[in-house]
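can u do me a favor
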């Protein structure tokens, strides 16, 4: 039974040794180090946010430009196809006008 008490005591001693620094940090007031650390973390967070925003804007601008270029190319291709179709239609109508009309008799 004494060995069991010794084992429990040593286990609790290790638990206490491991948790005391955390408890002391939670209980103690903020030190100058905490203020400096908070300031450095804030600076890092703001720089990271700015960089993320800049990259996001760059991506949105590139997508917008690529979309507009694609739309312009598609419209140009459509206009070119329309011109070809109109030209072929005029040629076909010209050939049809060259034939005399036959009247039903």
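np, heres the sequence
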């Amino acid at each position: 039974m004494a060995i069991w008490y010794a084992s429990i005591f040593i286990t609790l001693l290790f638990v206490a040794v491991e948790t005391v620094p955390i408890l002391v940090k939670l209980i103690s007031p903020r030190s100058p180090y905490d203020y400096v650390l908070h300031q450095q973390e804030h600076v890092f967070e703001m720089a990271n946010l700015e960089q993320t925003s800049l990259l996001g804007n760059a991506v949105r601008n590139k997508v917008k430009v690529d979309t507009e270029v694609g739309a312009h190319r598609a419209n140009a291709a459509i206009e070119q196809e329309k011109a070809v179709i109109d030209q072929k239609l005029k040629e076909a109508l010209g050939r049809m006008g060259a034939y005399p009309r036959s009247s039903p008799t």
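Residues 91 and 102 are 21 Å apart (CA to CA). hope that helps!!
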